[in-house]
Structures are given as C-alpha cells and as structure tokens.
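Here is one chain, start to finish.
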Amino acid sequence: MSDDKLDDLIEAKVKPKVFISYSWSSPGHQQRVRQWAERLMEDGVDVVMDIWDLKEGHDKYSFMERMVTDSGITHVLMMCDKTYAEKANTKKAGVGTETQIISNEVYQKVAQSKFIPIACEFSNDGEPFLPVFLKSRIWIDFSSLEAVNENWERLIRALYGKPTYQKPQLGGSPAYLSSEALSPRRPAIGKFETFKQALLSNKPGLRLYREEFLSACLSYADSLRVREQPSGSSMAERILEDCTKLKAVRDQILDWVLIESGVAITAEFEESLLDCLEKMRELKSRPPEVRAWNDSWFEAESFFVYETFLYIIAALLKARAYAVLHSIFATRYLRPQSEIGRIAFETFGCFYGHAETLQTALQPAPGRGFLSPAAELIRRQADRTDIPFSSVIEAELLVLLMALISHEARWYPQTLHYAERSEFPFFVRAAQHRGFLKLATITGIGDAQSLRETAKAGFGRLSVDQWYDFAMSVPFWECLKMDTLDSIS
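Its structure:
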C-alpha cells in the first residue's frame, strides 16, 4: 500500500479533534500555545481554542463545559505551567472552571485517555507543575524547544491512536506445548535460587538448602526412569526425549558446582558432590521394584550420568578445584541396591555411559552412522558458553588419563571423536612445573616419570592402540603431552 493511500485510510478512520486548555500566564506562553495549535492543524489535527472559537456574545463557561464533555472532541490538551496548576488547585478563573469539569470526567473514568497533560514548566526540584488531580497521569514534556521537537511525534501518535509501540496480536499456543517431551527448563529453579542466596549471604544451615536443591533435581530425574514395559516401537524417540528433558537437570547441577566452587571449596561441598555422583549413578540402574526389564530402557539415564559427569569434571577444572577432582577419581562408589550380588563398590568408571539406541533417533546421513551416538548428542546439547564443548572434550581427556593410571577403571573417550585439535591447554601447561603440580594433585602422582610409566601400562591394559576412527591424527599419548610433563621449571 502506498504512503498516500495509507494516509487516506488513517484520515478516514480517525479524525482527531482537540480542545486546548491553558492559562494566559504571559504573552509569551500564549504565543507558544498558539504556535503549537497551528502546528497541530498542519499535521491534520483539528484544534479548538478560545482565541479562535470563543466569540463575542458566547457564554465562556458553557463553551468550556461543552469542549470538555463533547464526544466530538477526541482529546483535551492541558498546557500545564505554574499558573495553570495554581488556578486549577484553587479553582480560580477560567482554568479553575475547566479543570473542575475535567477532574469530574477524569475521576469518573479512571482509565480516561482523553485528557493529556502537557508539562510546560518545571519547578526547581525538577518536577512538572501539574494540578493535583493530574499528578498520577502520564504527561508529555513541552518545557523547552528541544523537548517539543523530541516529543512532538509522540503527541501526534497519541492523538491519532498510532503509538510507536503496539501490543502484538495474541497468537496461538506453541505447538511444543502439546508434546509430552516438554519439561521444565529448570525443574528445581526455586530451590536453587534459595540455596544461592543462602550461599552468597553465608546463611546458617547451608547444607540443608543444598540437599533440598539436589534432592529436587535427582527426584525429577528419577521420575523419568522407566518402570513399566514401554508401549509402541518408538523406544529411540522416547530415549531422545528423556535425554532432552534431563539436560535441564544437567545444567542445574552444573550451575551449583560452578557457583559453590567459585565461592568456597569446602569439605562439605566436596562431600555433597561425591554423594550427588553416587546418587546419579543409581539413576542408570533399574528401580528396585522393577523385576523384568531391558537395559535399553535406562539408556537416557546412562547418557545423562555420562554427560553430567564430564561437565562436572570440566567445571572443576575451570574452578581449579584439583583436590576435589582427585577425590572424585580416588573414591569408590557404592553400587545401587538393585545390583546386589556384585562387588559392593566401583570406580569412577561407573559414570561411563552410552546410548546406542539413539543411533536412529539422531538421524545420521543415509548409509552412515555415528561413531558414538552419545558423543553426537553431547555435541548437539553443548549450548553453554561458560563450559563449551571443547572444555568437555578436554575434561574427558583427563578422565582417560585417570583411567590409564587406574588398575580397575575403564573408559573410552567418545567425545574425542569430535576433537578438532590435539593441543589441550591444561595438558600443554603441565610442561611447566607449576602446571604439572596441578596435574599431580589430581592424579596423586608427584613425579612426572612415574606418571608416564603408570600411564604407559594403562595404554596396554585398555588396548588404546587398537582404538580407531578418532579425528585426531596425533596419538593420545601426545595429546596428553606425556613426554613434556614437568620439563620447564
């Protein structure tokens, strides 16, 4: 539609007609009001004011009342200066009469937008001179030439009913609301905020706030565990949906680790983290009440534990919580009750996970599959800026090293299929003595040569040389910078 046609349409639908109420405070003020009236007329606004429309023989009070109450008058512009406000408040002279009529109209219709206060003068304390009954009304600043030029369009838009910002039309409900895959973005947001405030204000009983928050997170995750024979043939889609839901829990646990390790790394925090990990591990096992099951039922939880564990390692590396990392790798975790009959405790290798059922749900290219569906989903869900995917990959490289020097743990570094480089900052810095001391704290091995020898034995135990299809052309040994450890003082 052309601008001309649009202007015609606006003019046909809306013909603003205003009455200007003002005080003859001074010849200068009267002249300014007349100039504004002329400018309004130029912009297509019909203006009624006394100097043009109140003729000899007219009843001025009847004229004022008619202008204020006449339905043909779309707006009343009240040019408020000090004199106008004083006359209105004391009900003196013509302004007093007009404002008595106006105030009745305003008070009878609280939402009335017909009356627009124009602030023409301000007091020394920066407040506009307005009649008392207009104090709460939205006004337009006309107190200077600059203010008039700045706010003129705003006034014209108000008179034509065409504000700069208009409320958009109410749309339909989002399609995803009908999906059962929808989950709360933060299932324990309230409890996390309560804990966060308690932490930052050093409030007594912090342990209770922390436990309540973590319990809410893990309870939500537990509610997703399959407890009955799944119906239908879309198990892969069900697992993918649950993985997506559990991402919210991943993020909240990570937020907790980042904020508390950033404030103070205490023994209580470390103990709570180890306890949280052990309870997370339980999620990937069958619930005790389930007697018949298929391991694929719990692949979403297995993926969640694996992904969240890597993010926790990455967060602790960022927080330089090296002693806490050592505890995580050195601790033996109690097996869930549903796995009774096996060895009672297990290493950090229990947090490893995979989800082969995701292979079809993630829709690989025709004729191709993902080397690790779990790593592919971790990559897709890596949307955090504080812990990017590259940090997750570096964290898994550290987990691999810990598996190499362990006599029991096993680990296959799935995310390293997506490594775009072989230089990882934490291991590069370990060439310096200061950087090596950080690694020594984590591994518990204070001598570089001893660490190399132990890791070398782990390469044979885990058959690392037989792993293939990793994007890196550099062997894992070189990625770990084993040959340069503690070589720079």
